[in-house]
Amino acid sequence: MIETPKRFYIWNRRLYFTYKMKYSEAVAPYNNKMHHGWDEESMFIGMSYPLFEIENIYYDGHRCKYITVFGVTFGWLSTYSWEEK
Questions:
Q1: pLDDT at residue 3 in the model
Q2: Which of 18, 20, 28, 74 is 20 to 30 A from 81, comparing alpha carbons?
Q3: What strand order describes the sheet that includes 52-59?
């Protein structure tokens, strides 16, 4: 069974707050089987090594945008978790 996203969690020296969670079910086009999963959006704050950095990362449907000023990082994350039913 797929795990429900946590509202608050710590990962990689960052505190995440999940403000949007959406459960969905759909038929996958590549194997015609039913899949289910969670889409989630989070904001985070944390510490980082560079004094200044702006980053926009996209990989396979996962998005992360953040800015680091004097080692403090603020950002936004959009991700998903799907599996076959």
A1: 75
A2: 74
A3: 8-11, 14-27, 34-47, 72-84, 62-69, 52-59
Entry pTM: 0.77
Can you give the length of the chain in residues?
85
For Cα atoms 38, 39, 40, give the angle at the middle one, nearest 5 degrees.
115
The answer on pLDDT for 65 being more than 90 is yes
The helix/strand/coil state of 33 is coil
Residue 3 structure tokens: 């795990």
What distance in Å separates the CA atoms of residue 42 and residue 34, rounded to the nearest whole number? 26
Residue 33: per-residue pLDDT:
85
Token readout for 12 is 């990689």
Task: Indicate whether 1 pLDDT > 70.
Answer: no
CA torsion 6→45→66→48, rounded to 10°?
-120
H or E stretch including 51? none
